[in-house]
Amino acid sequence: MERIYLDHAATAPMHPNVIQKMVETMESQFGNPSSIHSFGREARHLVDDAREVLARSIGAKPNEIVFTGGGTEADNLAVIGGAEANKHNGKHIITTAVEHHAVLHACRQLERLGFDVTYLPVDETGSISIAEFKQALRDDTILVSIMYGNNEVGVIEPIKEVGELLKNHQALFHTDAVQAYGVETLDVNELSVDLLSVSAHKINGPKGIGFLYSREGVKLSPRTFGGEQERKRRAGTENVAAIAGFREAVIISQTELEERRSRYRSFKKLFVDRLEKEGVKFFINSSLDNSLPHVLNLSFPGTDVEAMLVNLDLAGIAASSGSACTAGSIDPSHVLVAMFGKDSDRTKNSIRYSFGLNNTAEQVEKAASETAKIVKRLTA
Protein backbone atom coordinates (compact mmCIF):
# COMPACT_ATOMS: atom_id res chain seq x y z
CA MET A 1 0.00 0.00 0.00
CA GLU A 2 1.33 3.41 -0.97
CA ARG A 3 1.60 5.75 1.98
CA ILE A 4 0.71 9.38 1.23
CA TYR A 5 2.03 12.11 3.51
CA LEU A 6 -0.28 15.14 3.62
CA ASP A 7 0.77 16.63 6.94
CA HIS A 8 3.56 18.97 5.85
CA ALA A 9 2.22 21.79 8.05
CA ALA A 10 3.20 19.63 11.05
CA THR A 11 6.66 18.85 9.72
CA ALA A 12 8.23 18.22 6.35
CA PRO A 13 10.78 15.64 5.17
CA MET A 14 14.31 16.91 4.74
CA HIS A 15 15.38 17.64 1.19
CA PRO A 16 18.14 15.24 0.01
CA ASN A 17 20.46 18.19 -0.67
CA VAL A 18 19.95 19.41 2.89
CA ILE A 19 20.89 16.00 4.31
CA GLN A 20 23.98 15.89 2.10
CA LYS A 21 25.06 19.37 3.19
CA MET A 22 24.62 18.51 6.87
CA VAL A 23 26.60 15.26 6.56
CA GLU A 24 29.40 17.10 4.74
CA THR A 25 29.45 19.74 7.47
CA MET A 26 29.51 17.20 10.30
CA GLU A 27 32.36 15.36 8.61
CA SER A 28 34.48 18.42 7.90
CA GLN A 29 33.54 21.17 10.38
CA PHE A 30 33.56 20.48 14.10
CA GLY A 31 35.06 23.74 15.34
CA ASN A 32 33.30 26.07 17.76
CA PRO A 33 32.35 29.26 15.87
CA SER A 34 33.47 31.31 18.90
CA SER A 35 37.02 29.92 18.80
CA ILE A 36 39.68 32.14 17.22
CA HIS A 37 41.80 29.35 15.69
CA SER A 38 41.38 28.10 12.12
CA PHE A 39 38.85 25.40 13.04
CA GLY A 40 36.65 27.98 14.75
CA ARG A 41 37.06 30.50 11.95
CA GLU A 42 35.95 27.95 9.36
CA ALA A 43 32.83 27.18 11.38
CA ARG A 44 32.18 30.90 11.88
CA HIS A 45 32.40 31.42 8.12
CA LEU A 46 29.65 28.83 7.58
CA VAL A 47 27.43 30.48 10.18
CA ASP A 48 28.02 33.98 8.80
CA ASP A 49 27.35 32.85 5.23
CA ALA A 50 24.08 31.21 6.29
CA ARG A 51 23.06 34.34 8.18
CA GLU A 52 23.51 36.40 5.01
CA VAL A 53 21.41 33.97 2.94
CA LEU A 54 18.60 33.95 5.51
CA ALA A 55 18.64 37.73 5.87
CA ARG A 56 18.48 38.23 2.11
CA SER A 57 15.43 35.95 1.87
CA ILE A 58 13.33 38.45 3.89
CA GLY A 59 15.00 41.73 2.93
CA ALA A 60 16.86 42.03 6.26
CA LYS A 61 20.43 42.71 7.35
CA PRO A 62 22.61 39.78 8.50
CA ASN A 63 23.00 41.25 12.01
CA GLU A 64 19.19 41.21 12.37
CA ILE A 65 19.06 37.39 12.21
CA VAL A 66 19.14 35.52 15.53
CA PHE A 67 19.56 31.74 15.27
CA THR A 68 17.24 29.83 17.62
CA GLY A 69 16.36 26.24 18.41
CA GLY A 70 13.21 26.50 16.25
CA GLY A 71 9.98 28.42 15.79
CA THR A 72 8.80 28.03 19.38
CA GLU A 73 11.97 29.56 20.80
CA ALA A 74 11.83 32.34 18.20
CA ASP A 75 8.24 33.13 19.20
CA ASN A 76 9.10 33.03 22.91
CA LEU A 77 12.11 35.31 22.44
CA ALA A 78 10.01 37.78 20.45
CA VAL A 79 6.96 37.80 22.73
CA ILE A 80 8.43 37.39 26.21
CA GLY A 81 11.79 38.95 25.36
CA GLY A 82 10.14 41.90 23.64
CA ALA A 83 7.64 42.48 26.43
CA GLU A 84 10.19 42.20 29.25
CA ALA A 85 12.65 44.57 27.59
CA ASN A 86 10.01 47.24 26.96
CA LYS A 87 7.77 46.99 30.03
CA HIS A 88 8.92 50.44 31.18
CA ASN A 89 6.77 51.82 28.31
CA GLY A 90 3.63 49.91 29.29
CA LYS A 91 2.34 46.40 29.89
CA HIS A 92 -0.32 45.97 27.20
CA ILE A 93 0.00 43.33 24.48
CA ILE A 94 -2.26 42.54 21.52
CA THR A 95 -2.42 39.12 19.88
CA THR A 96 -5.14 36.96 18.34
CA ALA A 97 -7.23 34.03 19.53
CA VAL A 98 -5.88 31.82 16.71
CA GLU A 99 -2.13 32.09 17.27
CA HIS A 100 0.13 29.06 17.56
CA HIS A 101 0.48 27.90 21.17
CA ALA A 102 4.09 29.10 21.14
CA VAL A 103 2.65 32.62 21.14
CA LEU A 104 -0.54 31.99 23.14
CA HIS A 105 1.22 30.20 25.99
CA ALA A 106 3.93 32.87 26.04
CA CYS A 107 1.18 35.48 26.41
CA ARG A 108 -0.44 33.48 29.22
CA GLN A 109 2.90 33.47 31.01
CA LEU A 110 3.16 37.24 30.59
CA GLU A 111 -0.32 37.61 32.09
CA ARG A 112 0.92 35.72 35.16
CA LEU A 113 3.73 38.27 35.35
CA GLY A 114 1.30 41.18 35.40
CA PHE A 115 0.96 42.07 31.72
CA ASP A 116 -2.42 42.85 30.17
CA VAL A 117 -3.14 40.86 26.97
CA THR A 118 -5.93 41.50 24.45
CA TYR A 119 -6.84 38.44 22.35
CA LEU A 120 -8.46 39.66 19.13
CA PRO A 121 -11.42 37.57 17.89
CA VAL A 122 -11.65 36.35 14.30
CA ASP A 123 -14.45 35.93 11.76
CA GLU A 124 -15.53 32.64 10.18
CA THR A 125 -12.58 32.72 7.79
CA GLY A 126 -10.16 33.06 10.71
CA SER A 127 -9.24 36.66 9.93
CA ILE A 128 -9.02 39.53 12.38
CA SER A 129 -10.84 42.83 11.89
CA ILE A 130 -8.68 45.91 11.32
CA ALA A 131 -11.42 48.00 12.97
CA GLU A 132 -11.26 45.81 16.10
CA PHE A 133 -7.47 46.01 16.08
CA LYS A 134 -7.63 49.82 15.99
CA GLN A 135 -10.08 49.77 18.88
CA ALA A 136 -7.79 47.49 20.92
CA LEU A 137 -4.64 49.55 20.32
CA ARG A 138 -3.71 51.73 23.32
CA ASP A 139 -1.02 54.26 24.18
CA ASP A 140 0.53 51.72 26.57
CA THR A 141 0.56 48.88 24.02
CA ILE A 142 4.17 47.69 23.78
CA LEU A 143 3.85 44.57 21.63
CA VAL A 144 1.57 43.26 18.87
CA SER A 145 1.95 39.61 17.79
CA ILE A 146 -0.16 38.43 14.84
CA MET A 147 0.74 35.37 12.77
CA TYR A 148 1.22 35.79 9.02
CA GLY A 149 -0.55 32.58 7.98
CA ASN A 150 -2.46 30.22 10.26
CA ASN A 151 -1.03 26.73 10.69
CA GLU A 152 -4.43 25.05 11.01
CA VAL A 153 -6.71 26.69 8.43
CA GLY A 154 -4.17 28.64 6.37
CA VAL A 155 -5.83 32.08 6.54
CA ILE A 156 -3.47 34.98 5.80
CA GLU A 157 -3.85 37.85 8.25
CA PRO A 158 -3.68 41.54 7.19
CA ILE A 159 -0.08 41.97 8.34
CA LYS A 160 0.81 44.82 6.00
CA GLU A 161 -2.22 46.85 7.12
CA VAL A 162 -1.37 46.33 10.79
CA GLY A 163 2.23 47.29 10.10
CA GLU A 164 1.10 50.55 8.53
CA LEU A 165 -1.04 51.38 11.57
CA LEU A 166 1.91 50.76 13.91
CA LYS A 167 4.49 52.85 12.04
CA ASN A 168 4.05 55.83 14.37
CA HIS A 169 3.34 53.77 17.48
CA GLN A 170 5.77 52.59 20.17
CA ALA A 171 4.58 48.96 19.98
CA LEU A 172 6.89 46.31 18.57
CA PHE A 173 5.24 44.29 15.80
CA HIS A 174 5.93 40.54 15.70
CA THR A 175 4.62 38.05 13.17
CA ASP A 176 4.93 34.28 13.39
CA ALA A 177 5.79 33.39 9.78
CA VAL A 178 6.65 29.74 10.44
CA GLN A 179 3.95 28.41 8.06
CA ALA A 180 4.27 31.21 5.50
CA TYR A 181 8.03 31.25 5.02
CA GLY A 182 9.02 29.36 1.90
CA VAL A 183 5.61 29.64 0.21
CA GLU A 184 4.93 33.37 0.56
CA THR A 185 7.11 36.29 -0.52
CA LEU A 186 8.09 38.06 2.70
CA ASP A 187 9.87 41.40 3.03
CA VAL A 188 10.21 42.76 6.55
CA ASN A 189 10.41 46.35 5.34
CA GLU A 190 7.34 46.13 3.13
CA LEU A 191 5.45 44.47 6.00
CA SER A 192 6.79 46.97 8.57
CA VAL A 193 7.44 44.22 11.12
CA ASP A 194 10.04 44.45 13.89
CA LEU A 195 10.20 40.75 14.69
CA LEU A 196 9.53 37.66 12.53
CA SER A 197 9.81 33.95 13.40
CA VAL A 198 10.86 31.11 11.10
CA SER A 199 11.49 27.37 11.55
CA ALA A 200 13.66 25.21 9.28
CA HIS A 201 11.74 21.93 9.47
CA LYS A 202 8.68 23.44 7.74
CA ILE A 203 10.74 24.11 4.59
CA ASN A 204 12.45 20.70 4.32
CA GLY A 205 15.30 21.65 6.61
CA PRO A 206 16.36 20.02 9.89
CA LYS A 207 14.36 20.09 13.12
CA GLY A 208 15.75 22.04 16.04
CA ILE A 209 16.85 25.17 14.18
CA GLY A 210 15.06 28.39 13.34
CA PHE A 211 15.63 32.11 13.39
CA LEU A 212 14.12 35.29 14.74
CA TYR A 213 14.42 38.44 12.67
CA SER A 214 14.92 41.32 15.09
CA ARG A 215 15.04 44.76 13.52
CA GLU A 216 18.17 46.75 14.28
CA GLY A 217 17.64 48.76 17.47
CA VAL A 218 14.91 46.50 18.89
CA LYS A 219 15.54 45.60 22.52
CA LEU A 220 14.99 42.00 23.62
CA SER A 221 15.43 40.44 27.04
CA PRO A 222 17.32 37.15 26.42
CA ARG A 223 15.69 33.85 27.39
CA THR A 224 18.98 31.93 27.77
CA PHE A 225 22.10 32.95 29.68
CA GLY A 226 25.70 31.89 29.28
CA GLY A 227 27.91 32.94 26.40
CA GLU A 228 27.68 36.04 24.25
CA GLN A 229 26.61 34.32 21.02
CA GLU A 230 24.13 35.95 18.64
CA ARG A 231 25.14 39.43 19.85
CA LYS A 232 24.16 38.50 23.44
CA ARG A 233 20.59 37.72 22.33
CA ARG A 234 20.80 33.92 22.49
CA ALA A 235 23.51 32.17 24.49
CA GLY A 236 24.80 28.76 23.45
CA THR A 237 27.19 27.26 20.91
CA GLU A 238 25.67 27.46 17.43
CA ASN A 239 24.48 24.23 15.80
CA VAL A 240 26.74 24.58 12.76
CA ALA A 241 25.55 21.49 10.86
CA ALA A 242 21.88 22.40 11.32
CA ILE A 243 22.60 25.99 10.28
CA ALA A 244 24.32 24.74 7.13
CA GLY A 245 21.30 22.56 6.38
CA PHE A 246 18.97 25.47 7.07
CA ARG A 247 20.90 27.60 4.57
CA GLU A 248 20.54 24.92 1.90
CA ALA A 249 16.81 24.55 2.56
CA VAL A 250 16.33 28.32 2.29
CA ILE A 251 18.17 28.51 -1.03
CA ILE A 252 16.03 25.68 -2.45
CA SER A 253 12.74 27.06 -1.13
CA GLN A 254 13.44 30.58 -2.37
CA THR A 255 14.46 29.30 -5.82
CA GLU A 256 11.32 27.17 -6.10
CA LEU A 257 8.92 29.49 -4.27
CA GLU A 258 6.66 30.45 -7.17
CA GLU A 259 6.62 26.93 -8.58
CA ARG A 260 5.69 25.50 -5.18
CA ARG A 261 2.92 28.05 -4.70
CA SER A 262 1.42 27.18 -8.08
CA ARG A 263 1.71 23.42 -7.53
CA TYR A 264 0.17 23.46 -4.05
CA ARG A 265 -2.71 25.67 -5.18
CA SER A 266 -3.42 23.20 -7.99
CA PHE A 267 -3.42 20.40 -5.39
CA LYS A 268 -6.03 22.22 -3.29
CA LYS A 269 -8.26 22.69 -6.32
CA LEU A 270 -7.77 19.08 -7.40
CA PHE A 271 -8.69 17.80 -3.92
CA VAL A 272 -11.84 19.93 -3.69
CA ASP A 273 -12.90 19.10 -7.25
CA ARG A 274 -12.55 15.36 -6.61
CA LEU A 275 -14.70 15.56 -3.46
CA GLU A 276 -17.35 17.49 -5.37
CA LYS A 277 -17.36 14.86 -8.13
CA GLU A 278 -17.79 12.16 -5.51
CA GLY A 279 -20.84 13.98 -4.17
CA VAL A 280 -19.44 14.34 -0.67
CA LYS A 281 -20.78 17.10 1.53
CA PHE A 282 -18.03 19.27 3.00
CA PHE A 283 -17.18 22.83 3.98
CA ILE A 284 -13.89 24.66 3.51
CA ASN A 285 -12.71 26.16 6.78
CA SER A 286 -11.36 29.58 5.81
CA SER A 287 -10.90 30.75 2.22
CA LEU A 288 -9.32 29.12 -0.82
CA ASP A 289 -8.06 32.48 -2.04
CA ASN A 290 -6.84 34.33 1.05
CA SER A 291 -4.92 31.40 2.47
CA LEU A 292 -1.55 29.69 2.40
CA PRO A 293 -1.21 27.59 -0.79
CA HIS A 294 -0.35 24.33 0.97
CA VAL A 295 -2.98 24.21 3.74
CA LEU A 296 -6.52 22.88 3.20
CA ASN A 297 -8.83 22.45 6.20
CA LEU A 298 -12.16 20.72 5.52
CA SER A 299 -15.23 20.00 7.62
CA PHE A 300 -17.16 16.79 6.89
CA PRO A 301 -20.67 16.94 8.45
CA GLY A 302 -21.82 13.76 10.14
CA THR A 303 -18.31 12.44 10.77
CA ASP A 304 -16.05 12.31 13.81
CA VAL A 305 -12.48 13.55 13.63
CA GLU A 306 -10.99 10.55 15.47
CA ALA A 307 -12.75 8.05 13.24
CA MET A 308 -11.70 10.03 10.17
CA LEU A 309 -8.03 10.13 11.18
CA VAL A 310 -7.94 6.42 12.06
CA ASN A 311 -9.57 5.44 8.77
CA LEU A 312 -7.30 7.75 6.77
CA ASP A 313 -4.28 6.23 8.46
CA LEU A 314 -5.51 2.72 7.68
CA ALA A 315 -5.80 3.84 4.06
CA GLY A 316 -2.18 5.01 4.17
CA ILE A 317 -2.97 8.73 4.30
CA ALA A 318 -1.33 10.96 6.89
CA ALA A 319 -3.43 14.03 7.70
CA SER A 320 -4.15 15.98 10.87
CA SER A 321 -6.95 17.41 12.95
CA GLY A 322 -4.83 20.41 13.84
CA SER A 323 -5.76 19.54 17.42
CA ALA A 324 -3.91 18.38 20.52
CA CYS A 325 -4.20 14.64 21.11
CA THR A 326 -4.02 13.75 24.75
CA ALA A 327 -4.85 10.56 26.61
CA GLY A 328 -6.73 9.07 23.69
CA SER A 329 -9.04 12.05 23.26
CA ILE A 330 -8.88 14.97 20.86
CA ASP A 331 -9.44 18.42 22.27
CA PRO A 332 -11.31 20.87 20.03
CA SER A 333 -9.04 23.09 17.97
CA HIS A 334 -8.76 26.53 19.56
CA VAL A 335 -8.62 27.97 16.05
CA LEU A 336 -11.91 26.38 14.96
CA VAL A 337 -13.52 27.30 18.30
CA ALA A 338 -12.51 30.92 17.72
CA MET A 339 -13.90 30.81 14.18
CA PHE A 340 -17.18 28.96 14.72
CA GLY A 341 -17.86 28.76 18.48
CA LYS A 342 -17.25 25.92 20.92
CA ASP A 343 -20.59 24.25 20.14
CA SER A 344 -20.05 24.09 16.38
CA ASP A 345 -19.85 20.63 14.81
CA ARG A 346 -16.90 21.88 12.75
CA THR A 347 -14.72 21.65 15.84
CA LYS A 348 -15.41 17.90 15.87
CA ASN A 349 -15.33 16.93 12.19
CA SER A 350 -12.54 18.94 10.53
CA ILE A 351 -9.41 17.56 8.91
CA ARG A 352 -6.29 19.44 7.79
CA TYR A 353 -4.49 18.31 4.65
CA SER A 354 -1.18 20.04 3.91
CA PHE A 355 0.94 19.53 0.83
CA GLY A 356 4.69 19.57 0.24
CA LEU A 357 7.82 17.93 -1.10
CA ASN A 358 7.33 14.71 -3.12
CA ASN A 359 3.53 15.00 -3.31
CA THR A 360 2.10 14.39 -6.77
CA ALA A 361 -1.24 15.18 -8.41
CA GLU A 362 -1.93 11.43 -8.51
CA GLN A 363 -1.39 11.15 -4.75
CA VAL A 364 -3.65 14.10 -4.04
CA GLU A 365 -6.42 12.72 -6.23
CA LYS A 366 -6.10 9.31 -4.60
CA ALA A 367 -6.20 10.85 -1.12
CA ALA A 368 -9.34 12.80 -2.02
CA SER A 369 -11.00 9.66 -3.41
CA GLU A 370 -10.12 7.67 -0.27
CA THR A 371 -11.44 10.52 1.87
CA ALA A 372 -14.71 10.43 -0.06
CA LYS A 373 -15.04 6.68 0.49
CA ILE A 374 -14.42 7.05 4.22
CA VAL A 375 -16.90 9.92 4.60
CA LYS A 376 -19.58 7.92 2.74
CA ARG A 377 -18.92 4.89 4.92
CA LEU A 378 -19.05 6.89 8.17
CA THR A 379 -22.22 8.77 7.22
CA ALA A 380 -24.12 5.85 5.68
UniProtKB/TrEMBL annotation:
Query: Which terms in the Gene Ontology molecular function aspect does this entry carry?
Result: cysteine desulfurase activity; iron-sulfur cluster binding; metal ion binding
Q: Which reaction does it catalyse?
A: (sulfur carrier)-H + L-cysteine = (sulfur carrier)-SH + L-alanine
Q: Which residues form a coiled coil?
A: none
Q: Which EC class is this protein assigned?
A: transferase
Q: Does DNA damage count among this protein's keywords?
A: no
Say if the entry is tagged with keyword Flavoprotein: no
Name any cofactors this protein relies on: pyridoxal 5'-phosphate
Q: Where is the Aminotransferase class V domain?
A: 4-366
Q: What UniProt keywords are attached to this protein's entry?
A: Iron, Iron-sulfur, Metal-binding, Pyridoxal phosphate, Transferase
UniProt EC number? 2.8.1.7
Taxonomically, which superkingdom? Bacteria
Family listed:
Belongs to the class-V pyridoxal-phosphate-dependent aminotransferase family. NifS/IscS subfamily.
Q: Supply the name of the protein.
A: cysteine desulfurase
